[in-house]
Amino acid sequence: MTDGMTETANERFSPALRRAIGVVMIGSSLSFLDTTIVNVAVHSLAGGLHAGLDSVQWVITAYLLALAAVIPVTGWAARRFGAARLYVAALVVFTIGSVWCALSQSLEMLIAARALQGIGGGMIMPVGTIIWTAHAAKSQMGKVIALLAIPIIFAPALGPVVGGLLISGLGWQAIFWLNVPIGIAGIVLALRLLPMDKGADAGRFDLLGLILASLGIVGITYGLAEIGVAGGLDTNAVAGLLVGVLALTGFVLHALRSKHPLLDVRLYANREFTAAMIATFALGAANYGGMILMPLYLQTVRGEDVIIAGLLVAPTAIGALISAPFTDRFGPGITSFTGAAILTVATIPFLFLTTSTSYWLLCVVMVVRGVGFGLSILPTMTAAYQALRPEQIPDATPQLNILQRVGGAIGTAVLAVVLTSQLHHGTTPAEEADGFSTTFWWVLAITIIATIPTLLLAYTERSARQRGNRGRARGGRR
Asked: Could you report the per-residue pLDDT of 213-253, keeping only the tens digit for each?
């Protein structure tokens, strides 16, 4: 039993837990930073690699898809090979992928390198969570889970700023070279500070489940992206969607029959859990997909360089920071609904972008969007956990990670191709601004979709609280 397991709720984190938190935070920040650091590079990549925006967006989508596809494997692999060993291996793969990205000479090579990077990045956070919880007392789980919000919220918001500074001075390759020394430092620290636990019998690996789930995710994402490219259903879109739906249907049937499925789909019989998962998916699409639009607007329509574009997107992180103290004061259902509603309202000003929209207005709106995202994403995940029994949580964790990342991948793919279609019709900055405004209608629709299931979570939570109050009132009259 580790040091952390012997602590009481009033004691500080043990030295072992503090070391684990420090080491894992390095890798987790890298993984989430790379979900958005490329956003401000899309314009530079399109010019440097002589490709259109609809093609360059696959640099982002390939990372998110590979990341989501590998997450289901992490639980089994951590048991089989040991969590600390797998964490080191994930950092090694991520760092090698970063070197390959920086050395890429073509768009196809860069997309392949980003997929490799995503495989490493997808294992870092789930395995890191396993390492943290292994060193924490049960009474400390709430604080440990709260720490997970740091890389989830702040790293993606800071990505455009860091990316803008690096690209302006050193070129787009620098955003990938940045990962190399940090990744190497993380590997060295992990080897020195984490106990290299040995693996154990993890049972039979569900290879068929992994193939079906991955094929389904990729097929649906590709099909939706092709709808945006073609402006409707064409052969490629139908083929992608058909393959994706059939693969996911096969995965569900396989999981229901399997004794040890890759992912336990029976959890979706719980209405509150399902609502939280739908909200997590839609919030991922609205947040990560929406993050690609503003840097492009600032560079394409307003003619700003990548540094200014990154700095003007940074207020999202400030908003997330402002929201942090409020997340524990109310229940997760009410908080997540409030956050999703704020996120929806804060999207409306983007529907009226022009060539002269005030930067002060944009900064204020970005802060408010950050507040909305900070109030919605973590409470939604908390609501999902609270809807389940303790023994079901290990099966729920990878599914939450998958839906958030797949939502981001699909949102990025769809919004990028919708924007490309709009920009093809624009020849002046004013017409291009209209194209961005039209694309933000899609973002608004996604945020509204995210708000609907959070309303169910808030209603369920309020009803449970009222039942508890009535029960206490009856008990007091006896």
From this structure: 888 887 887 787 676 555 566 787 888 889 989 999 999 99
Can you give the length of the chain in residues? 478
What are the φ and ψ backbone dihedral angles of 296, each rounded to 5 degrees? -70, -40
CB neighbours of residue 257 within 10 Å: 8
Q: What is the pLDDT of residues 386-408, one digit of tens each?
A: 788 767 776 777 788 778 877 87
Taking each helix axis as running N to C, give the angle between helix 429-477 and helix 393-424, from 0 to 180 degrees, rounded to the nearest 10. Answer: 150
Lookup: tokens for 223 = 């099909």
Burial 14-39 (b: 16+ CB within 10 A, else e): bebbebbbebbbbbbbbbbbbbbbbb
- Burial degree of 112 (CB within 10 A; 0-12, 13-18, 19+): middle
The pLDDT score that the predictor gives to residue 402 is 79
CA of 145: how far to CAs of 21, 75, 288, 321, in Å? 11, 17, 21, 16
Give me 245's structure tokens. Answer: 């739906």
**Strand boundaries in 116-206, DSSP class E:** none
Long-range contacts of 352-355 (CB under 8 A, 24+ apart): 352/437, 353/297, 353/301, 353/433, 353/436, 353/437, 353/440, 354/430, 354/433, 355/301, 355/302, 355/429, 355/430, 355/433
Rounded to whole angstroms, the Cα distance separating 448 from 63 reads 26
In the Cβ-directed half-sphere of 78, how many Cα atoms lie within 13 Å?
22
Cβ-proximal residues to 334 (8 Å cutoff; 6+ apart), any chain? 458, 461, 462
Write down the pLDDT at residue 332.
79
> How far is 223 from 231, CA to CA, in rounded Å?
12
CB atoms closer than 10 angstroms to residue 472: 9
Which candidate, 143, 144, 116, 112, places its Cα nearest to that of 131?
144
Q: From 168, 148, 228, select the one nearest 404 (Cα to Cα).
A: 148
Predicted TM-score (pTM) of the model is: 0.73
Token digits for 117? 């990077």
Between CA 93 and CA 85 the distance in angstroms is 12
What's the CA gap between 65 and 238, in Å, rounded? 20
**Tokens 């919880």 map to which residue?**
133
Do 220 and 410 form a contact (C-beta atoms < 8 A)?
yes
C-alpha closest to that of 221 among 34, 108, 58: 58
Sign of the C-alpha dihedral computed for residues 420, 421, 426 and 432 taken in this order: negative
Distance CA 476, CA 83 (A): 50
What is the rounded distance in angstroms from the CA atom of residue 461 to the CA atom of residue 438? 36
